[in-house]
């Protein structure tokens, strides 16, 4: 799209609205609709599960979830037509805003036992979730600006690491071990994709291993208990191990095809806790069986796959890193949640995207997907003019 | 300098690497799901079921125990328990007040109830009253609208209508203790009772039946959501004992204040018609849960009401043993019935002097007279000639010296001494004087009243080794049990029987005063006086000569073994009265009365069971 400089002033206003609408239509056509359909499919399954979790009622979860998804869908598509350039421009702003929110939470946050949320009345905002996407955006911009050769240099890598570490530390202080770990993991993957040398990762891994015992001593008691219980749930079958064991029992008893929608005995008899949030996948497994669970995993694989496609087809480094970063973020959510409910990871309170009930996580991912769609729409945008 | 293409290629490579890892991880998750849901699916389904399904047991109805004619000896009585379910009652204190107005609750009880209510979840009912009868329940039920959340449930309680009379053979039930626990889940029910003594204990499994099961679905806090299945279970078997309830009652009353035992048997079948031990106790106090004070009182009572003296009490048989000594002599050809010995009141052995109970002596004694008049000197002589080992052999064949095998939980073996036994048990050599003493049933010889009854039965039933039993076998009528013969020559047995007849009918028989007047019900038998302690020289000097003058606990036991009717014996009986003095004075009249009662009632006859009438009458009484 070339900008006109100069004279034919009168012609522009008349042509603009038409072009705008054309542009709008053309832009929407370039949206990856398969991705949107797949995500909506997942969200619909989520609505179904929340309906069942409430004992056959749309309230209090199913209807709200549907409304939130619809609003988020508007945001998603809105970002898609917003334009990659503008996203690029606002990358650091977004990051700064999130960071400030994190500091705010540390000061005035609400939440039982852990200060994670800011109460906005309409909903509770969890800045640590938003941070995951904000970080992706900021790192993508940083790496784009640095170019492939300077990526490795200390004067780029350093700030990158700070960008990752600073919010992670704040989140850790909340304390929220799970989210902090996911923030760091997401950031590291972006660094990897941007081209940081292999040996640097090896070094970091060795350093992490060496620091593990020290880190262990910094953990709170309940966090340590979580790790130990994960390793051996039978240690405390009525206490910390209870959720995991009940989750595995409920999931396992679903069999190949499940007990039927709304027929999950474990979930409905209160044996399964948090069935509308963290353990919604378990309920899905109990009611829809292996078939249902694998289907949902396939849908997620489709979404992640499409994100990859968007990323690999994008012209700009920013676009590529953003799309792939969002893919990684989404993947990490799914992986940690599903692994947790099946006893393969410690209980860390990570929701299942678009299925678990909860505001901020879904919004975050929809923003992320919106950004990825923006990359798709503007895939030919190289953002050369924006390079330093 | 990396070109944009190189950069892109590198990114693509790395992206595929990461992407590959992600795909692997997703595959791994799917594999884990497969493992949990398909490979281990059954196991988890079972666990899920176990989570949500509780099996509740209800105690099965315990079988009744009836006497040989179908009359009830042990039954279940309906009692009622009042339950309050706290979550169904708005104000628990007010509800308890209202209950208290109808049926009082003591302050301690109230405190206990409140403690339980506070401790348990609201849906767990708490008992406020136990063992209520129908009247009290009716009063509560009438006010049901004022008492929401209050329920009345029926609880079975064991009832022994005869009370102390049949307490020893029947026994009693009590709560399950740690020791009794097995894997049976029904034993953990709080209302479950199992047999602790007597027939209740020996046949406990048959009487117990099988528990009723109901499967209920519960949620995570244990609240019942719905009932899934119900299995009614099986009531316990009704058992028919060989006892004659009315004879048992008679014997118990006839014993009166005396302590001791009475046993009556059918000589052909071995059916035990009466097994009484005095003093008794009321087994009904155990059904409700005996207080520790009462338990202590019963167990420390010097007259041992909890001991079944008929099978556990071991006493010297005294002169009732003499028949066996005589039989041993006859069988081994040591004497003939006509042989005689002279009794002048004392028998010398080395430096020892063995006296006859009749200090002046009996004069010339043949076997018949010796038994009839219970001459000790005759038996010292005979015992000396036969030897203790041969006497022991004979005694064993008549059921002495070992357990009779009756169906009661504990039985004493008694003791029949032999030379080998003394060496083994006391590491001493047998002395001849001890043979003499054994010949009159004293010294080391010990028997239980049941064993004496069995001995008598075997003597009079033609020498068959009949065994005692307390339960009628299924489908058996009056039928002589095919007992193997003991192996005694019939004429020798006849001699003994003749002699036992003379005890009661002869001119000088020791029990002639106790003979039954009715000719058709005449009895024969043998008196016995079991010495507890010899009167020492010192006491003799002080003027104590007669046994009656000693303090009670040193007085001789009074024994009598008998049979009736004389011509065709059907009943054998053994009576033992502790410290009763001479056999003829106390035990013989008791045996006379009991044997007369047994014969007039026809205790050993077979009649169709009176069960339906008797039960109906009893039930009617219970409801009223």
Q: Can you describe this structure in just a few lines?
A:
Chain A has 388 residues and is mostly helical. Chain A has helices at residues 11-29, 33-53, 62-82, 84-108, 127-150, 154-172, 177-194, 198-218, 221-231, 240-252, 265-268, 280-313, 317-341, 359-377; strands at residues 118-119, 124-125. Chain A has a two-stranded antiparallel ribbon.
Question: Could you list some keywords that capture this structure?
Answer:
heterodimer, A: 388 residues, mainly alpha, 14 helices, 2 strands, 1% strand, B: 624 residues, alpha+beta, five-stranded mixed beta sheet, five-stranded antiparallel beta sheet, 23 helices, elongated, disordered C terminus
Describe this structure as you would to a colleague.
The complex is a heterodimer of chains A (388) and B (624). Chain A has 388 residues and is mainly alpha-helical. Helices cover 71% and strands 1% of the residues of chain A. Chain A contains 14 helices and two strands. In chain A, strands 1-2 form a two-stranded antiparallel sheet. The longest helix of chain A is centred in the C-terminal third of the chain and has 34 residues, at 280-313. Chain A is globular, with a radius of gyration of 22 Å. With 624 residues, chain B is α+β, with helices and mostly antiparallel strands. Helix content of chain B is 38%, strand content 18%. In chain B, the strands form six sheets. In chain B, strands 2, 3, 4, 5 and 10 form a five-stranded mixed sheet that branches. Chain B has a five-stranded antiparallel sheet with strand order 12-11-19-18-17, with helices on both faces. In chain B, strands 1-8-9 form a three-stranded antiparallel sheet. The longest helix of chain B is centred in the first third of the chain and has 36 residues, at 4-39. Chain B is elongated. The N and C termini of chain B lie far apart (110 Å). Mean pLDDT of chain B is 85; it is low at 475-479 and 610-624. At the A-B interface, helix 7, helix 10, helix 12 and helix 13 of A face helix 1 and helix 2 of B.
């Amino acid at each position: 799209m070339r900008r006109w400089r100069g004279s034919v002033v009168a012609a522009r206003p008349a042509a603009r609205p038409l072009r705008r609408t054309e542009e709008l239509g053309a832009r929407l056509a370039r949206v990856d609709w398969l991705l949107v359909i797949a995500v909506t499919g997942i969200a619909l399954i989520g609505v179904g599960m929340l309906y069942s979790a409430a004992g056959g009622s749309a309230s209090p979860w199913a209807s709200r979830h549907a409304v939130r998804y619809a609003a988020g869908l508007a945001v998603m598509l809105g970002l898609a037509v917003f334009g990659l350039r503008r996203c690029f421009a606002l990358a650091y702003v977004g990051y700064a805003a999130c960071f400030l929110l994190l500091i705010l939470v540390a000061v005035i946050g609400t939440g039982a036992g852990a200060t994670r949320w800011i109460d906005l009345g309409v909903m509770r905002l969890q800045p640590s979730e938003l941070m995951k996407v904000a970080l992706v955006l900021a790192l993508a911009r940083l790496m784009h600006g640095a170019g492939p050769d300077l990526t490795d240099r200390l004067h780029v890598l350093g700030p990158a690491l700070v960008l990752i570490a600073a919010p992670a530390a704040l989140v850790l202080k909340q304390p929220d071990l799970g989210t902090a770990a996911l923030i760091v993991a997401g950031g590291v993957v972006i660094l990897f994709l941007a081209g940081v040398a292999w040996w640097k990762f090896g070094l970091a891994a060795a350093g992490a291993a060496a620091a593990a015992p020290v880190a262990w001593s910094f953990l709170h008691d309940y966090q340590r208990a979580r790790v130990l219980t994960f390793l051996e749930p039978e240690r405390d079958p009525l206490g910390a191990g209870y959720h995991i064991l009940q989750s595995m029992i409920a999931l396992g008893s679903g069999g190949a095809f499940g007990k039927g929608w709304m027929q999950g005995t474990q979930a409905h008899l209160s044996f399964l806790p948090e069935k509308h949030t963290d353990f919604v996948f378990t309920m899905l497994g109990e009611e829809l069986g292996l078939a249902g669970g694998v289907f949902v995993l396939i849908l997620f694989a489709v979404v992640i796959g499409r994100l990859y496609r968007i990323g690999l087809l994008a012209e700009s480094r920013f676009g590529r890193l953003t799309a792939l970063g969002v893919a990684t973020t989404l993947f990490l959510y799914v992986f940690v949640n599903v692994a947790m409910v099946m006893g393969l990871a410690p209980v860390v309170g990570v929701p299942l995207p678009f299925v678990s009930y909860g505001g901020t996580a879904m919004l975050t991912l929809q923003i992320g997907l919106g950004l990825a769609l923006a990359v798709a729409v503007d895939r030919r945008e190289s953002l050369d003019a924006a390079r330093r | 300098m990396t070109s944009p293409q190189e950069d892109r290629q590198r990114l693509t490579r790395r992206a595929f690497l990461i992407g590959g890892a992600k795909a692997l991880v997703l595959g791994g998750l799917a594999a884990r799901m497969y493992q949990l849901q398909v490979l281990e699916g059954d196991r988890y389904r079972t666990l899920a079921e176990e989570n949500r399904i509780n099996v509740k047991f209800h105690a099965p109805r315990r079988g009744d125990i009836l006497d040989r004619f179908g009359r009830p000896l042990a039954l279940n009585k309906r009692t009622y328990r009042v339950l309050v379910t706290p979550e169904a009652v708005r104000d628990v204190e007010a509800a308890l007040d209202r209950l208290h107005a109808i049926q009082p609750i003591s302050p301690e009880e109230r405190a206990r109830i409140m403690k339980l209510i506070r401790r348990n979840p609201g849906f767990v009912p708490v008992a406020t009253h136990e063992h209520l009868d129908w009247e009290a329940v009716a009063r509560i039920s009438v006010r049901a609208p004022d008492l929401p959340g209050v329920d009345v449930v029926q609880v079975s309680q064991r009832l022994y209508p005869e009370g102390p009379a049949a307490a020893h053979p029947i026994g009693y039930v009590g709560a399950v203790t740690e020791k009794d626990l097995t894997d049976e889940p029904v034993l953990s029910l709080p209302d479950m009772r199992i047999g602790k003594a007597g027939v209740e204990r020996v046949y406990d499994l048959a009487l117990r039946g099988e528990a009723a099961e109901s499967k209920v679905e519960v949620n995570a806090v244990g609240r019942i959501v719905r009932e899934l299945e119900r299995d009614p279970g099986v009531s316990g078997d009704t058992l028919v004992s060989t006892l004659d309830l009315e004879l048992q009652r008679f014997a118990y009353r006839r014993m009166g204040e005396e302590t001791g035992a009475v046993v009556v048997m059918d000589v052909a079948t071995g059916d035990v018609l009466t097994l009484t031990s005095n003093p008794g106790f009321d087994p009904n106090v155990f059904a409700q849960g005996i207080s520790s004070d009462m338990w202590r009182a019963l167990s420390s009572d010097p007259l041992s009401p909890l001991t079944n003296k008929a099978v556990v009490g071991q006493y010297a048989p005294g002169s009732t043993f003499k028949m066996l000594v005589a039989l041993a002599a006859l069988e081994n050809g040591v004497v003939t019935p006509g042989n005689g010995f002279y009794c002048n009141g004392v028998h010398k052995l080395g430096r020892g002097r063995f006296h006859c109970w009749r200090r002046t002596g009996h004069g010339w004694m043949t076997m018949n007279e010796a038994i009839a008049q219970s001459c000790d000197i005759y038996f010292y002589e005979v015992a000396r000639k036969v030897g203790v080992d041969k006497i022991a052999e004979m005694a064993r064949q008549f059921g002495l010296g070992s357990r009779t095998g009756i169906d009661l939980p504990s039985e004493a073996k008694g003791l029949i001494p032999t030379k080998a036994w003394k060496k083994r048990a006391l590491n001493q050599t047998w002395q001849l004087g001890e043979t003499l003493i054994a010949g009159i049933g004293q010294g080391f010889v010990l028997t239980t009243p049941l064993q004496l009854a069995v001995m008598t039965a075997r003597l009079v039933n033609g020498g068959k080794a009949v065994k005692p039993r307390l339960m009628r076998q299924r489908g058996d009528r009056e039928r002589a049990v095919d007992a193997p013969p003991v192996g005694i020559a019939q004429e020798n047995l006849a001699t003994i029987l003749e002699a036992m007849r003379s005890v009661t009918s002869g001119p000088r028989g020791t029990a002639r005063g106790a003979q039954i007047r009715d000719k058709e019900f005449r009895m024969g038998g043998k008196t016995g006086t079991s010495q507890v302690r010899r009167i020492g020289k010192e006491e003799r000097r002080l003027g104590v000569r007669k046994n009656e003058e000693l303090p009670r606990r040193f007085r001789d036991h009074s024994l009598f073994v008998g049979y009736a009717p004389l011509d065709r014996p059907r009943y054998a009986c053994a009576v033992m009265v502790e410290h009763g003095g001479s056999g003829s004075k106390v035990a013989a009249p008791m045996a006379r009365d009991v044997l007369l009662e047994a014969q007039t009632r026809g205790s050993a006859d077979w009649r169709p069971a009176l069960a339906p009438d008797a039960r109906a009458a009893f039930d009617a009484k219970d409801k009223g």
